[in-house]
């Protein structure tokens, strides 16, 4: 029996609402699967915690998390705390502290009716973005000089180390080889004449080790256009931290919106726990109304199952989401329905339970 310890960080706004639904899915898996047993511990960290305690998480927060098998996070951010403080002291602190340098974001259209792209189908929009998740534009290096004077100058420095660049690109090549898919690098070497020239060079060097992997390289501006016009070009994408952030919101938009987009933050060497989360934020505009779409959070449970080598559960969850979308009766407002977060979550669990039970009795 696998006993898995999951740290829950609901965080802020709709993070709390959607995480609850994901936990219901985990509890369903626990109930059905005799080999899996989940233990949960919840951490009250986030902006409320900051307002009360002056910090986003405990000083030894990473120490408290380090022995968990996975971290499951809702969302972080509230108007009461500046975003750069709340995100750097919680979400980014975990990604960096646990060296989760791989961010896996699946861009998969599960139902044609959800894409705003004319004439594009499920076959056309089905790819994986592998985002560098530890350095680059998110190095946190910079300087604010002559503040408040006419001579004010602000620097935000990107850091691309050889180790950091090689490891993400190598990870992407390994994944492309394993899946027998093409690999597309997205960068911007024409304007970013240090960092992206270096990125492109490393991509070319490593590609020599993988003659079996077909490669493409696009500038990020053109790639943004192809995401919309010809998403079928992409199978596996590797890109930098910031480009990956932006492109995956675009990817979410062509597959049904942020309410369906999930991300896994992984340290592939498994020296530290991974973190699973929807890629959306705390959505202050709809928080507290019970109308947030829980499917992104639930999709991240599927990614968690894959990480735990429980691929069947991943498939069951994704197929259940597909059925729920097709059925169309329990959709939240962002998808044109009227359901509450909890109603969508409950229906998903019904579908999942039925699907697994039917499969077992075969
Ligand atoms: P957001 O993702 O919170 O919301 C953008 C839009 O998408 C809003 O209109 C929102 O209502 C909608 N939306 C997002 N998730 C949804 C869901 N599950 N169901 C239905 N609608 C959904 O982005 P934002 O408004 O730019 O940021 C709000 C706060 O969240 C900020 O503090 C930001 O820094 C933070 N943020 C956190 C994370 C994270 O924790 N991973 C990610 C992005 C933004
Ligand atoms: C995401 C988010 C974060 C990021 C923010 C909240 C720091 O937008 O996970 O996509 O930029 O990585
Ligand atoms: Mn983002």
From TrEMBL:
Pfam families: Iso_dh
PROSITE patterns linked: IDH_IMDH (PS00470)
Cofactor(s) listed in the protein's UniProt record: Mn(2+); Mg(2+)
EC number: 1.1.1.83
GO MF entries: D-malate dehydrogenase (decarboxylating) (NAD+) activity; lyase activity; magnesium ion binding; NAD binding
Enzyme class: oxidoreductase
Keywords: Lyase, Manganese, Metal-binding, NAD, Oxidoreductase
Catalytic function, reaction form: (R)-malate + NAD(+) = pyruvate + CO2 + NADH
Domain (Isopropylmalate dehydrogenase-like): residue spans on this chain: 5-348
Family: Belongs to the isocitrate and isopropylmalate dehydrogenases family.
Designated name of the protein: D-malate dehydrogenase (decarboxylating)
Organism: Caldibacillus thermoamylovorans
Encoding gene per record: ycsA
